[in-house]
Automatic annotation (TrEMBL), chain A:
One Pfam family recorded for the sequence: Hydantoinase_B
Record-level GO BP terms: glutathione metabolic process
Organism of this sequence: Falsiroseomonas stagni DSM 19981
Protein name (database record): N-methylhydantoinase B
Record's GO cellular component terms: cytosol
InterPro entries: Hydantoinase_B, Oxoprolinase-like
Domain of life: Bacteria
One Gene Ontology MF term: 5-oxoprolinase (ATP-hydrolyzing) activity
Sequence ranges assigned to domain Hydantoinase B/oxoprolinase in this UniProt record: 5-519
Automatic annotation (TrEMBL), chain B:
Domain Hydantoinase A/oxoprolinase, chain residue ranges per copy: 192-320, 339-404
Protein name: N-methylhydantoinase A
GO annotation, cellular component aspect: cytosol
InterPro entries, alphabetized: ATPase_NBD, Hydant_A_N, Hydantoinase_A, Oxoprolinase-like
Lineage summary: Bacteria, Pseudomonadati, Pseudomonadota, Alphaproteobacteria, Acetobacterales
């Protein structure tokens, strides 16, 4: 085994351990239980070197944010114990709750690498608790925006920055603890990589790191060479932008170019929207990274893959919005863009692909005050079904492709909030019919026990299910409603913010995956 | 009067190893038999005691049976009784994928374990403070097929087990039953439910295969045995029957304990315990084996305290012919000797990955190698991963078994030397062959261990 391969294993192992540290120390449920956080290592120029096996949506999204920080704070000027952070979608960030933190790794007097983490914080202000208002009209309604700034200098915290951060969140204790968890993870990385470079030398470290990127690039080139020089497109649409119900199309075109290179173009996608379904470019880069990983699964997940990618994101569109667009509900946009990319890829490289997964992750923020005046808040992420495939049915409730969020256990949720989870079950019959049926979404029923609460709900696929493949049926659609104590039912659309009263039952049903192949005679279609 | 020995037995994939250590620290008696010839553990122990003329003071047994039953899906399916509304939880899991790059993630619960028709929701609720908020409705208890193990996992049972206890009291006497608040009294309902279901699924196996071992030994006038656990401790037959899940990976854990002992005071050690079927890799930091709260067994991942051991599906049985052909083992071989180099390279890559993922760098670590096949490949692997030193304990073929003893045994060892065709030195003590390739220097120690050092 080569020295490069050894370095790759060591750095990927380190990234995984950073991830473990985030999960062990984070306090907010969406990070600790939902695993909405990620860790990676970068070269001093911002190219990604190694990633934790965690959440592709955030891993890919961290790459431009590191570049954004470096544009303001060059690596050459960084010193031991410095820490820099941002959450700014126009500096490479994702949406405001995701704070990216990097720390330089210094060896032989220079920055040889950067350790980075990204974590979805519980609340960074804005017009709704949880900072994901589905009806936000601009970034200022979404919370505190942090352009790249220096948070630590020589290990010491900048008191001014810390004061501003903690003054602009509804959950200062959680933000404090989660930021500390991020710092502990990058500090561990700095310690380990410093020890490694002391043994092998900073020059050898840099040389081997460059080789790792070149190897990944070459592996991708080999995989791309097997795809014909052609073009394919796929289109998906969001069911409204949170303000109006008009469909918001997302068009993905992939083109295999000579070289070989891969061009991805989102021309034809909707103009940026008034509501918050706009996705900053970082999210689309994450989607592309997932596609490249699919094309070359054995290549290391580093920046070498991106060297062969030409990404076009039309300016002022839903996939590259201009300041000051609202962007918090980007998750569905990125998930559906990923579906479109994978569908286009399946046309160019026809193989026995699975039917579409539900293509959406419901993100729910709930905040309230219980009967004794105690305030509570949580955010959770609910998956839909996986698509059926040639080899087996789809799995139920699976965080597929770019997402990898975990659900929030009822035993953790009920500890946080005056809620009883009355059911957590399969959304029966929501998997698309087929020779291999799609997996079911989930059905979750929550009773508010005391006080009042406010819900921010960001869903998708309330109107049309995930398409089936090769004659398989579409997956069932998602549904959201509240059942009042007198039995009356209030349905809600796929993006909604509403109040919730004690005694009322909130029921979320997520979408199923598409079926694969025609169902055999006698199977009932769903 | 006969000395009362501590007797241990390790049933691995291919062999059954026995050690009897006298209390005065004198030389231990050992035996190694092919597993296929000694399927009856109790008979093997009774035969050994008669042959050696000893009556043991204690007996400790490690066995692969429970882990194999879970890996092959031959453990029992279970009936699940859970809080109404959560019957589908085995299919939902935590909705994440262990490896986000894997295109074919396993379901959160193996299909054989929890058939949907055997899941039942019981009305009743305990809340997060452990208070009853909905009374238990016992009228909905289903009548279950006799003998089928039952896993009972109610929400917040770890805070207040009253509902689990009341249901348990209503089940027919003798029902194999696992209660979540006993198996895994920790928060997060899916993890507790999965551990409880796996625990229940092993109960029939333990009752029909391990409990009779204990009865036969006692009937023969021997002491009641203890069964080794994944965290390095041991349980009485009663305890094992009541909570069988920790029995999985007991042999590998014993191996990890032995490795840690032999590693002694070095800061880092990697253990390689390679028998006929698998190679077990353990890690030692500052003299203590690394621990974990999560066991990964094939596609399964479940909550259980254990020593941190990873299993690689490469064993000596498939390599014996090649080792003979290469002249590493006596006898004529029919297989291509090249497969030894392939096996060394594959094991080396696995070892390196396992160690580095835990921040143990092989070039700073001691490699402790045992099992029937480990000593033959250890120096070759160490050379590839940059381990400067290899320790091969005395009677290395019984290394894992020796880890079942509470105090390290004195193992009588005579290393017979011969020169291999390829310039390597081969040392055989009857339990395993150690290979010292060219470029390595061997130093026998007074305690019978071999130290292999790479030439500078």
């Amino acid at each position: 085994m080569s020295d490069n391969a050894i370095l790759r294993i060591a750095l990927e192992g380190l990234a995984d351990r950073m991830q473990d540290m985030l999960l062990a120390a984070a306090k907010s449920p969406v990070a600790r239980e939902g695993m909405d956080c990620a860790a990676a290592l970068f070269l001093p120029d911002g190219r990604v070197l190694a990633q934790a096996r965690s959440l592709p949506l955030l891993l890919g999204g961290m790459i431009p944010a590191v570049s954004g920080i470096l544009a303001r704070f060059p690596a050459a000027a960084m010193a031991e114990g410095d820490g820099f952070l941002t959450n700014d979608p126009w500096s490479g960030g994702t949406h405001l709750p995701d704070i990216i933190l990097i720390r330089p790794i210094i060896a032989e007097g220079r920055t040889v690498a950067l350790a980075g983490t990204i974590l979805h914080h519980q609340d960074v202000g804005g017009l709704a608790p949880g900072s994901i208002p589905p009806d936000a009209r601009d970034i200022f309604q979404e919370g505190l925006r942090l352009p790249p700034l220096q948070w630590r200098r020589g290990g010491a915290e900048d008191a001014g920055v810390a004061t501003i951060l903690l003054a602009n969140t509804r959950t200062p204790a959680m933000l404090r603890a989660d930021l500390d968890a991020q710092w502990a993870a990058v500090t561990q990385a700095a310690t380990e990589v410093s020890a490694l470079t002391t043994r092998i030398g900073a020059d050898a470290f840099t040389r081997r790191a460059e080789s790792l990127l070149a190897e990944a690039r070459d592996a991708l080139a080999t995989a791309l060479a097997a795809i014909p020089e052609a073009e394919a497109s796929a289109e998906v649409a969001l069911e409204g932008d949170g303000i109006t119900p008009d469909p918001v199309p997302i068009c993905a075109t992939i083109r295999r170019l000579p070289g070989p290179r891969l061009a991805v173009d989102f021309a034809g996608s909707a103009p940026q929207t008034a509501g918050p379904v706009n996705a900053a470019p970082s999210g689309l880069l994450a989607a592309c990274f997932a596609l490249l990983r699919r094309i070359a699964p054995d290549a290391a997940a580093n920046h070498g893959l991106l060297e062969l990618l030409d990404l076009e994101l039309p300016e002022g569109s839903v996939v590259n919005p201009r300041f000051p667009a609202a962007v918090n509900a980007r998750t569905a946009t990125v998930k559906l863009a990923t579906n479109a990319l994978l569908a286009a890829h399946a046309q160019l490289a026809p193989r026995r692909a699975r039917a579409s997964n539900a293509g959406v992750a419901v993100v729910l923020s709930a905040a309230g005050t219980d009967g004794d005046g105690r305030r509570w808040m949580f955010t959770e992420i609910l998956a839909g079904g996986e698509g059926g495939g040639p080899d087996r049915p789809g799995l139920h409730a699976l965080s597929a492709d770019v997402s990898n969020a975990r659900n929030l256990p009822a035993e953790v949720l009920e500890e946080i909030a005056p809620i009883r989870v009355e059911a957590f079950a399969r959304h029966a019959g929501s998997g698309g019919a087929g020779a291999q049926p799609g997996g079911d979404g989930v059905r979750r029923a929550y009773r508010l026990l005391s006080g009042t609460a406010e819900i921010s709900y960001r869903g998708e696929r309330h109107l049309a299910g995930a398409p089936g493949a090769l004659g398989g049926g579409a997956g069932g659609v998602a549904r959201l409603r509240i059942i009042a104590t007198d039995g009356t039912e209030r349905p809600f659309p796929s993006k909604a913010r509403f109040g919730w009263m004690a005694g009322e039952l909130l029921i979320i049903e997520t979408a199923g995956g598409g079926g694969w192949g025609p169902p055999s005679q006698g199977d009932s279609a769903t | 009067m006969t000395m009362r020995h501590a007797l241990v037995l390790d049933q691995g994939g291919s062999f059954l190893d026995v050690i009897a250590a006298p209390p005065d620290g004198g030389p231990a008696r050992i035996a190694k038999r092919p597993r296929a010839e000694a399927t009856d553990i109790a008979a093997a122990i009774i035969d050994f005691c008669q042959a050696e003329g000893i009556i043991p003071a204690s007996i400790t047994i490690a066995t692969t049976l429970p882990a194999n039953a879970l890996l092959t899906g031959t453990a029992s399916p279970v009936a699940l009784l859970t809080t109404a509304g959560f019957e589908d939880l085995p299919d939902l899991g935590r909705q994440s994928r262990r490896d986000p790059d894997a295109l074919d993630p396993p379901p959160p619960t193996p299909a054989w374990l929890s058939p949907p028709a055997l899941r039942f929701g019981i009305p009743g609720r305990i809340d997060a403070r452990g208070e009853e908020v909905v009374p238990l409705d016992l009228s909905t208890l289903p009548s279950l097929p006799a003998g089928l193990p039952v896993a009972l996992c109610l929400l917040f049972a770890h805070r207040n087990p009253v509902h689990e206890n009341r249901i348990a009291a209503r089940l027919p006497p003798g029902t194999p039953l696992s209660l979540s608040h006993r198996v895994d009294p920790e928060t997060r309902e899916f993890e507790r439910m999965l551990a409880t279901m796996l625990d229940a699924s092993l109960k029939p196996l333990v009752a029909t295969t391990l409990a009779p071992v204990a009865q036969a030994l006692v009937a023969a006038g021997l002491p009641e045995p203890r069964f080794a656990l994944a965290d390095g401790r041991a349980a009485t037959p009663g305890e094992a029957l009541a909570a069988p899940l920790p029995l999985v990976l007991s042999g590998p854990a014993a191996g990890a304990r032995a490795v840690a002992r032999w590693a002694g005071a070095v800061p880092f050690a990697i253990g390689l315990d390679m028998g006929g079927t698998t190679a077990e890799v353990s890690l030692v930091r500052d003299g203590a084996p690394l621990e974990t709260r999560t066991i990964r067994l094939g596609p399964m991942e479940f909550r259980c305290r254990a020593l941190d051991v990873e299993s690689i599906a490469i064993g000596g049985d498939a390599l014996t012919q090649a080792a003979r052909a290469a002249g590493w083992l006596p006898g004529a071989g029919t297989a291509d000797a090249e497969s030894l180099a392939v096996a060394e390279a594959m094991l080396a890559e696995s070892l390196r990955r396992i160690a580095l993922r835990r921040n143990i760098h092989p070039d700073l670590a001691l490699l402790v190698a045992g099992g029937g096949f480990g000593p033959l490949l250890a120096a070759g692997i160490a050379g590839i991963i940059g381990c400067p030193r290899v320790l091969i304990p005395p009677a290395p073929g019984l290394m894992a078994a020796s880890g079942l003893l509470d105090t390290p045994p004195r193992l009588p060892t005579t290393w017979n030397h011969r020169q291999g065709a390829d310039g390597a030195l081969l040392l055989d003590d009857g339990t395993a062959t150690a290979r010292v390739p060219p470029g390595w220097r061997v130093t026998p120690r007074d305690d019978g261990a071999l130290l292999l050092d790479a030439a500078a």
